[in-house]
Write a structure and sequence with these properties.
The structure is a single chain. The protein is an alpha+beta fold and about 500 residues long. It has helices spanning about 10-20, 25-35, 40-65, 105-110, 135-150, 190-210, 215-220, 225-255, 295-300, 315, 325-330, 345-375, 380-400, 440-445, 470-475, and strands at about 70, 75-80, 85-90, 95-100, 110-120, 130-135, 175-180, 255-260, 265-270, 275-280, 285-290, 300-305, 320-325, 405, 410-415, 420-425, 430-435, 445-455, 460-465.
């Protein structure tokens, strides 16, 4: 293609209905209406709706007219802007992946939006690397295929929302994972799925607290201070919270499927908004398997790929968003080699974890003892004793999470208590090491090593391992140059 193209004109209807371009103008219209003395009657509201809709339509038409894209032989170019014109160019060889997103309203009009992720810096204001919003699905697939073909990589097959491919159509496709809808029952144990329902329930309670007192009996019909009513409300809120978490997980992960096509992994998911995310296998440097505190109770986990140059990696790098831990590990080991069983850290690390966990409780206990002896006020002492006792299992749990292993081509590190994460990384991913030793660690013969990598979080910590084992582990997990990382005695 040598001539710039426009998106489908049907995107004007989508942006008008969602007030995409006019959202920033609505806050300015409110004080303007107040300054002109407009009342709040039905005619005023109807006029405001008409004006905002017309403004939205006008800005949507202008934005569509001013937006063009070009997928040339060497780069993708996007031009946009109503008053200030901007043009962004991303070379094809810097593109890390293309995500095809189909929100509900886009699907009604037969459109998709493309998010092009590239290692070319981010736009000011936190915008996506490149966003092409409002092309037909066939054009989106053509653009994705053309870009990857010009990069000289294997071109993955097109993804559709239709029936599953037949055996003859799927001959070049290898399925890595498929979401089992029974796994939605894990959702109430995942903090991410509980955040939005908790915020909604909190808003409802706040609204009820703001209602006039004489209005509450008319709504509830019973005494608001009745213990039975309080219990019923709490149980209802709990049921609502669980149901909302399950529904939220279903909306995001419905029909999740991870397949390999050529040199790419393609994940599709979503009930209302359908997402198709592509990852280059050659750029995957490892896999992280995370288990929250609640997830560990039922043996659940989630798996995420650690990819170089990938934006929004926590979402776009998902290999299995939720499922049994064994299934997550099976998916992970299809991409990286198994480094072997984890090695336990020395007993000094256990003592250090327990000491740090009970230190706060012991401090509160000491303060409580003084208050009890001088003022006869014992509640602080009781709280301190309880915190000290709870610190022991907390320290043991944090110690149990520690571990590391080194294989022929991969190594793994594990840590965390509230969210326990094991990262399995390729040796070639390591670009450096950092060794840390506090005064207390030196006294106990311990050290912490950080593997610096160009993917995921950028650094993975091996906490409180034996200081004498740091150099050997660094060499086994990377290259011989890491042998210089012997902690110097002080």
């Amino acid at each position: 293609m040598t001539e710039p193209r426009r998106t489908s004109p049907r995107i004007v209807a989508v942006h008008t209905a969602t007030f995409r371009q006019a959202r920033s103008l609505v806050p300015a219209l409110i004080p303007l209406a107040a300054a002109t003395g407009l009342g709040g009657g039905p005619w005023t509201i109807a006029a405001a709706v008409v004006i905002v809709t017309l403004v939205s339509l006008g800005t949507a038409v202008l934005a569509w007219r001013r937006f063009t894209y070009l997928d040339g032989p060497t780069a993708v170019v996007v031009s946009r802007g109503l008053l200030a014109r901007s043009e962004r160019t991303v070379p094809n060889d810097r593109i890390r992946g293309i995500e095809i997103e189909a929100p509900l309203l886009h699907r009604v009009f037969g459109l998709v939006r493309l998010r092009i992720d590239a290692a070319a810096g981010s736009a000011p204001g936190g915008d996506e690397e490149l966003l092409i919003d409002g092309v037909p699905r066939a054009e989106g697939e053509r653009l994705r295929t053309a870009v990857f073909a010009r990069r000289g990589t294997a071109v993955p097959g097109a993804e559709t929302d239709g029936p599953e491919p037949t055996e003859s159509e799927a001959v070049d496709e290898e399925e890595y994972a498929r979401f089992d809808h029974r796994w939605l029952l894990y959702a109430p144990l995942v903090g991410g799925y509980l955040a939005l329902p908790l915020a909604g329930i909190g808003a409802l309670f706040r609204l009820a607290d703001e209602l006039p007192e004489d209005f509450l009996p008319e709504v509830i019909g019973v005494d608001a201070g009745d213990p039975a009513l309080v219990v019923a409300v709490l149980l209802g809120a709990l049921v609502l919270l669980v149901a909302a978490a399950v529904i939220g997980a279903a909306l995001v992960n419905w029909r999740f499927r991870l397949v390999r096509r050529g040199g790419s992994l393609i994940a599709s998911r979503g009930l209302l908004t359908r997402l198709h995310t592509e990852l280059e296998i050659d750029r995957i440097r490892g896999v992280a398997i995370a288990e929250g505190a609640g997830m560990r109770l039922v043996g659940a986990a989630r798996a995420t790929a650690l990819v170089t140059g990938l934006g929004d990696a926590a979402r776009r790098g998902q290999l299995l968003p939720l499922g049994p831990k064994g299934r997550c590990r099976d998916v992970a080991l299809r991409l990286v080699d198994d480094p072997g069983p984890l090695s336990a850290h020395p007993p000094a690390a256990r003592r250090r974890r327990i000491t740090r966990a009970v230190a706060g409780g012991l401090l509160v206990t000491a303060v409580g003892a003084v208050l009890t002896a001088t003022e006869g006020w014992w509640p602080v002492l009781a709280v301190g004793v309880v915190l000290s006792l709870l610190g022991v299992p907390l320290g043991l749990g944090r110690y149990a999470a520690l571990g590391h292993a080194a294989g022929e081509r991969t190594f793994s590190v594990r840590g965390g208590w509230l969210v326990r994460e094991e990262a399995i990384l390729q040796r070639r991913a390591v670009v450096g090491w950092e060794v840390r030793q506090s005064w207390f660690q030196r006294r106990n013969g311990l050290a912490s090593a950080v593997a610096c990598v160009g993917a995921g979080r950028g650094g993975y910590l091996v906490l409180d391992m034996a200081a004498d084992d740091v150099a050997g582990f660094a060499v086994a997990a990377s290259e011989p140059w890491a042998g210089a990382l012997v902690p110097e005695p002080r």
